[in-house]
Design goal:
CATH class of the largest domain: Mainly Beta
Number of domains: 2
Strand order of the largest sheet: 1-3-4-5-6
Distance between the termini: 32 Å
Structural class: alpha+beta
CATH superfamily of the largest domain: LON domain-like
Mean pLDDT: 86
Low-confidence stretches: 223-232
Shape: globular
CATH architecture of the largest domain: Roll
Order of helices and strands: HEEHEEEEHHHHHE
Number of strands: 7
Largest sheet: 5 strands, mixed, barrel
Length: 236
């Protein structure tokens, strides 16, 4: 198995159901995508160090609206997160890290655990994609329309043009395709979190299609500042 395939693999029977939480107000991770992160807060440096010494798993979640007064504490979280694995890391001066996180699975937050470390932890349950049997007949048409809308918004050239074209040329399941498109497009956090929380693939695709149809061609795609792909490191 290649290193990438190993990083993307997930065996539910080997998962404890306990996840380290990395909540941010403006980063939504999806399964199947790569998210670079620059980690500098002490609590998240501890989280990364413990993760690297163990299973390398981190659950990215989003702070619920109204988090600002209690950012340093334990403000409420949105109920669906994305479990990811640290694929690569680079230790920096002062205990900071640059990490590359690959999204694995949606997870629902069951209950937050009592604080025993500087970072937050929770019991979570894995959420698998659901493909309704009654939607099978129209799913191919839905995927075709989604692909057409996405291609309409693609840049004609640039650093991400080639990898996106390679993606479009590959045959991937609708659930995976929606996740990659949802991550790639510069939607706001609210719509991204809505798409992450939707396990019904047909409903997720329909929501994404409506959001794409309302966009005009311009700069809807994540454009890395440095000309690299994946995009630059986000700061915690």
């Amino acid at each position: 198995m290649s290193d990438l395939a190993e990083d993307l693999s997930f065996r539910p029977e080997e998962f404890s159901g306990r996840a380290r939480l990395f909540p941010l107000p403006n980063v939504v991770l999806f399964p199947h995508v790569l998210q670079p992160l620059h980690v500098f807060e002490p609590r998240y440096r501890e989280l990364v160090a413990e993760s690297l010494a163990g299973d390398k798993l981190v659950a990215m979640c989003v702070l619920a609206p109204g988090w600002e007064p209690d950012y340093e504490g334990r403000p409420p979280l949105t109920p669906v997160a994305c479990l990811g694995r640290i694929m690569t890391h680079h230790s920096l001066e002062g205990g900071r890290y640059n990490i590359l996180l690959v999204g694995l699975k949606r997870v629902g937050l069951v209950r937050e655990l009592p604080p025993t470390r500087s970072f937050r932890e929770a019991e979570v349950e894995v959420i698998d994609d659901h493909y309704p049997s009654k939607g099978r007949a129209r799913r191919q048409d839905l995927q075709r329309r989604l692909l057409d809308e996405f291609k309409r918004l693609l840049p004609k050239s640039g650093p991400i043009h080639e990898p996106l074209e390679q993606l479009l040329a590959a045959e991937v399941p609708l659930g995976m395709f929606t996740d990659i498109v949802a991550y790639t497009i510069n939607f706001g956090v609210k719509i991204k979190q809505q798409l992450l929380a939707e396990r019904n693939v047909d409903r997720r695709a329909a929501t994404l299609l409506a959001a794409l149809a309302g966009m005009t061609q311009g700069e809807p795609i994540r454009q890395p500042r440095t000309g690299s792909f994946p995009p630059d490191f986000s700061e915690n």
